Amino acid sequence: MPLYGGIEAGGTKFVCIIAENPESVIVESRFSTQTPEDTLSKAVAFFQSESEKLKQPLKALGVACFGPVDLIPSSPTYGYITTTPKAGWKNTDIVGHLKSQLNIPVLFDTDVNAAAFGEYTWGAAQGLEDFLYFTIGTGIGGGALVNGKPLHGMVHPEMGHISLPHSWEKDPFAGTCPFHQDCFEGLACGPAIEKRWGIPAPKLPPNHPAWELEAYYIAEAMRTFICTLSPQRIILGGGVMEQKQLFPMIQKKTLQSLNGYIQSTRLIDNIDEYIIAPQLGNRAGVLGAIALAREAY
Ligand code: ADP
Ligand code: ZN
Asked: Could you tell which of 111, 240, 244, 283 is best to mutate to test the pocket of ligand 1, judged by most ligand atoms within 8 Å of the CB?
């Protein structure tokens, strides 16, 4: 069985696995994100020692990375984390470091593009070529598959930073985004919920008005992405979406907001299969990294 390495490189934690597919995850290691030197050395040590124990070299490594990142192969900073506000991580050569230490092909994409690719390969988007994957957690990010390929474009999409209708009367909370204040992420990420209501999001009861407002913002964002990209499906993951009561609320509000304009049976008759949870759960990112690694051949 060929083995691949996968890393989900997050701002809070790194998850590393060796696997062939979701059914054959051989080993896993999780550690908190410290300095780039410490964290990348830990990842390298994990893959080296585990593949030695398995007596089998890894064929390739996939990295699902927090961003912003440089994905343009011809760029001198390809494979770098670029302008992140995360202390110590600005201009970090992720791919270069891993490639030089492990001597195997390294495939690299944003965390959400990789998660989308994982869901495409093994999860909730099998058979679809054009769809979106969002994480609604510490931040909000969106990945897009277009014609079955992760969309990069000029840099890569930053779908968490679109603007949304924000009624200051109904919601006087200013938003948390240091760049745009009340963008989608600024109004609807986990920390925004906590700051608005003064209670950590996981502690708010399911019937708290926080969730109606959250569903409203997410639904308005869904309308924007449905109208701009016409996705065949939208997958919503991340910590905030552990609140499963949000799904029917978002589905209903999205239809209300579109107001019958877009006539597709996917939307009108099957909204509960259109805006859905990831099938790979919280492993979408790291399994997406494995799916990317498999693309090396
Ligand atoms: P990250 O974005 O750091 O990868 P998560 O996707 O778990 O990690 O997002 C963390 C955020 O999600 C936090 O702001 C947290 O408050 C929120 N969160 C985590 N679990 C829940 C939950 N069960 N209900 C609501 N919010 C949650
Ligand atoms: Zn923003």
From this structure: 240
